[in-house]
Q: What sequence folds into this?
């Protein structure tokens, strides 16, 4: 998912460079990529954890962060679609 975020950031930068649109989406996707990374690291930590309570707590936190990041990605996709489809003045 981090790779997807980075690819879209690159595509947005091309669109901005061409002067078609300017958007906040690339900044939001960078934050989103960070959330996916944190979720991944917490999941890995949960797999390596020896304590059952700690493992379950880390899994829940990683799941919650992953869901927030996925929701953020959907919001950014809507923002990109709106920005590109609305004609600039």
A:
């Amino acid at each position: 998912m981090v790779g997807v975020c980075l690819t879209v950031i690159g595509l947005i930068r091309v669109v901005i460079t061409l002067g078609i649109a300017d958007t906040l989406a690339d900044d939001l996707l960078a934050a989103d990529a960070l959330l996916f990374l944190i979720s991944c690291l917490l999941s890995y930590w949960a797999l390596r954890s020896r304590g059952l309570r700690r493992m379950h707590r880390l899994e829940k936190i990683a799941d919650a962060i992953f869901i927030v990041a996925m929701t953020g990605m959907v919001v950014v996709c809507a923002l990109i679609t709106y920005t590109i489809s609305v004609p600039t003045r």
Summary: The helical segments are 2-17, 25-48, 52-85.
